[in-house]
Amino acid sequence: MSVPALLRGVRVKQDTVRDMPVLLGPERALMLDPIGAAILDRVDGERDLDGIVVDLAAAYDAPADVIRGDVEAFLSDLADKRLLEMRT
Amino acid sequence: MTAPRPAPPIAMLAELTHRCPLACPYCSNPLKMVAREGEIGTEAWADIFAQAAKLGVLQLHLSGGEPASRRDLTDLVRAARDVDLYVNLITSGIGLTEARLRELDAAGVEHVQLSLQGVNAGIADLIGGYKGGFDRKMQVARMIGEIGMPLTLNAVMHRHNLDDLPQTLDMAVELGARRIEIACVQFQGWALKNRAALQPTREQVAQAKALVDQARRDMRGTLVIDFVPPDYYADYPKACMGGWGSTGLNVTPDGTVLPCHAAETIPGLTFQNATEVPLDQIWYDGAAFNAFRGTDWMPEPCQSCSRREVDFGGCRCQAMAIVGRAEATDPVCKLSPDRPKVDALLTENAESAAGGTTEDFIYRRLEPVRAR
């Protein structure tokens, strides 16, 4: 079981000037598209990857295996950037 | 043709003070610095932070000089967090005790960027011009780790320490840094005065690039490596500031708002002060910010170049420093008619490297003084 969690110093902020959610971290500001925002909405350091995928599949009425691919790619990119970690 | 309204800035560098215990000969501060008496107060900064947040700034970099030289640093951090800016502290570590770090942490500093002058006291203290600075910095780095604040090392590299790149990367991992910036000296400010003493050799640069490529693969997921290469050796210029007046702004200790660190070296530009003119007006309508915004100002070969929105003509201050005209193509570019000037400087620097030593440094001081 792996639980994704944002690292300390990383947070999502609703940018009221640009009217979009942004992910803020050390020397980074990433504008989030609706998919990224929906994933990070569910990253709370408690829910595991499976739980997040099932929840997204239900919310967007999409096949879980497709969703899983998107979520894994998104989260692993953030892990490479040292913004997020997978806790086991 | 009317230009579209510029996008709001993402980042603001607040140079809270030019005071600093270190005297690094490559400091990006201007040669003419603001004395303590000229610094704006806590309230004025808090007001600028609030205006910045409203304008669309997301990231606030608290820098200097050494920001810890400001006794109101904690209050400034709190003021920035009150308006929900992301607060990054850029420091040499000197002047930060454990108690002060904990206070800053509680006030809401979200990330610390610690400068690194070298991997041992010998080189680091020689560069910083401050005996005992390295040992103190290592203590501060460990305290940052104990408190748990995210850490980036900013290693400024040049001829005298670029060969220590492997040890520099190891040090970042050992100190628990998530990121490291391998920032090769850019020749503006004090660095321009010390160019001959600092310019790395072509061989050093080639080796550093190969090492960084390898380390990025080996350290993926452990350490993020941002590499700023020495641009004199590049074929194309850096996209300075991501394009003039496009993503960021600098505020100096007296409240002057600049499009970049070195913009004051460009004659003819006038800069407004955030204590007198609203920040949004300076950003959108200020003459200095509009001087090189977009692509209309560009000369050839930039104007018809496919890379004009990749590197934005490069660095205006570099064009000023080497060509003598701020609106010239950055002479680093291989397409620039002035590229031979850069090559001549490299040849000259290589010759002086053979005999030159750190004794030639002109240290950063309020009044320039020789090393010995």
From TrEMBL, chain A:
Pfam families: PqqD. Keywords: Plasmid, PQQ biosynthesis. Pathway: Cofactor biosynthesis; pyrroloquinoline quinone biosynthesis. It comes from the Bacteria. NCBIfam families: PQQ_PqqD. Monomer. Interacts with PqqE. This is Pyrroloquinoline quinone biosynthesis peptide chaperone PqqD. It comes from Paracoccus albicereus. The lineage of its organism: Bacteria, Pseudomonadati, Pseudomonadota, Alphaproteobacteria, Rhodobacterales.
UniProtKB/TrEMBL annotation, chain B:
Gene3D superfamilies: Aldolase class I. Belongs to the radical SAM superfamily. PqqE family. PANTHER family: PQQA PEPTIDE CYCLASE (PTHR11228:SF7), RADICAL SAM DOMAIN PROTEIN (PTHR11228). Interacts with PqqD. The interaction is necessary for activity of PqqE. It holds the Pfam family SPASM. Its cofactor is [4Fe-4S] cluster. PROSITE patterns: RADICAL_SAM. Binds 1 [4Fe-4S] cluster. The cluster is coordinated with 3 cysteines and an exchangeable S-adenosyl-L-methionine. Coiled coil: none annotated. Residues 6-223 form the Radical SAM core domain. Keywords: 4Fe-4S, Iron, Iron-sulfur, Metal-binding, Oxidoreductase, Plasmid, PQQ biosynthesis, S-adenosyl-L-methionine. It catalyses: [PQQ precursor protein] + S-adenosyl-L-methionine = E-Y cross-linked-[PQQ precursor protein] + 5'-deoxyadenosine + L-methionine + H(+). SMART domains: Elp3 (SM00729). The gene is pqqE. Catalyzes the cross-linking of a glutamate residue and a tyrosine residue in the PqqA protein as part of the biosynthesis of pyrroloquinoline quinone (PQQ). Its EC number is 1.21.98.4. InterPro entries: 4Fe4S-binding_SPASM_dom (IPR023885), Aldolase_TIM (IPR013785), Elp3/MiaA/NifB-like_rSAM (IPR006638), PQQ_synth_PqqE_bac (IPR011843), PqqE-like (IPR017200), Radical_SAM_PqqE_MftC-like (IPR050377), rSAM (IPR007197), rSAM_sf (IPR058240). [4Fe-4S] cluster binds at C20, C24, C27. This is PqqA peptide cyclase. Pathway: Cofactor biosynthesis; pyrroloquinoline quinone biosynthesis.
